[in-house]
Design a protein that fits this description.
alpha/beta, 4-stranded parallel beta sheet
């Protein structure tokens, strides 16, 4: 009888002892960096699907439960994911969350900064200064309204997410209270250096949550950093062959990547992807294409390429797709490496 009770007791406790930390992430690029560290020792729950936009997103009740039950929420920051600010506060998760933009060691850029000194003729970027429409991702036209959030006028639907059991807060991340990044370009995942900063913060957090696997997480961090260093050199060598070729992007959301690899950004189709450029802007872009001898205009998979096709009608300028979210990248430990390789290949396909 005693043996039976002991067996039942061990069986009842085993799910608790085997429970994995639950990390809730905001968007796909965040999940990619987190996955490089977690491996199979933690669960990742992503809020915004890889084909949706963080700009006009609305949380569902299941997302709010996910936030409340998470060990840690990892997000880019209020300037990109404003829909998370109130829910994090309401759930008491601000101190235990990791806000990428607020981490020490980050290299941040403001919208409106000149891209590169060596890129001649790029003095017409003043239309970006301080713009607060960081809606680079997502043309999804099926945005149902979702209940359960305060003061958010975002409207985007997304796939269902299962909820996980409750977990206590663990304060490891420097609090992001008071960290306002108005005018800061939030596309920080496009810099391998910034990816390393987040990976270190995630490693520290996981080690505090799951001390038994601390060495595993630290080994994954070392592997990630070494892999990024090697990959960075390979990508740089490839892009150096085309870094004088002028191009236009769909929107000004690639500056971290462009700055890091010294690419020749000549302009963008639109400041905000949800605003179609008018006839005047199209005329200006056509002039820019001729003046700078632009060889490629990039579109994005989240938006219709119609405006790009219209812009290039009658010209011999090439076009290709850039995906700033890596929406087709499988989420595993190599996801961030695969994303950066994919983005590099997308540039090379049109500039080479």
């Amino acid at each position: 009888m005693n043996k039976l009770l002991l067996t039942l007791g061990v069986s009842a406790l085993s799910p608790l002892t085997m429970a994995k930390p639950v990390i809730v992430t905001s968007i796909q690029p965040v999940s990619m960096v987190v996955a490089a560290i977690t491996g199979d020792r933690a669960e990742i729950e992503q809020i915004v699907s890889s084909t949706a936009s963080p700009h006009d997103f609305a949380l569902r009740p299941s997302d709010l439960r996910k936030i409340a039950q998470a060990d840690t929420v990892v997000w880019v920051g209020e300037s990109l994911e404003s829909f998370l600010e109130k829910p994090l506060e309401n759930a008491g998760k601000e101190a235990s969350s990791i806000e990428w933009l607020a981490l020490d060691g980050m290299s941040l850029r403001d919208f409106g900064e000149e891209h590169h000194d060596e890129h001649a003729g790029h003095d017409d970027h003043d239309e970006h200064a301080g713009h607060d429409d960081h809606d680079e991702h997502a043309g999804h036209d099926d945005h149902d309204e979702h209940a359960g959030h305060d003061d958010h006028d975002e409207h985007a639907g997304h796939d269902d997410h299962d909820e996980h059991g409750g977990h206590d807060d663990h304060d490891e991340h420097v609090g992001h209270e008071g960290h306002h990044h108005d005018g800061v370009d939030p596309h920080v995942w496009l810099s391998p250096d910034n990816a390393k900063v987040l990976a270190r913060a995630v490693t520290k957090r996981l080690a505090s949550l799951d001390a038994d696997n601390a060495k595993y997480y630290q080994a994954n961090l070392a592997k990630f950093e070494q892999g990024l260093t090697t990959q960075d050199a390979t990508i740089r060598a490839a892009l150096n062959k085309v870094n004088k070729v002028p191009y236009i992007v769909f929107h000004d959301g690639y500056s971290y990547f462009e700055e890091h690899y010294a690419l020749n950004h000549a302009g963008e189709v639109t400041v905000s992807p949800e605003r179609k450029p008018g006839a005047k802007k199209v005329a200006e872009l056509r002039h820019e294409i001729e003046e700078h001898k632009v060889q490629c205009v990039f579109s994005e998979p989240q938006f219709s390429p119609a405006i790009v096709n219209t812009l290039l009608e009658g010209t011999k300028v090439k076009t290709a797709r850039l995906d700033p979210l890596g929406s087709d990248i499988k989420l595993d430990m190599n996801a961030y490496f695969n994303f950066m390789n994919s983005l590099s290949d997308q540039f090379l396909s049109c500039l080479g």
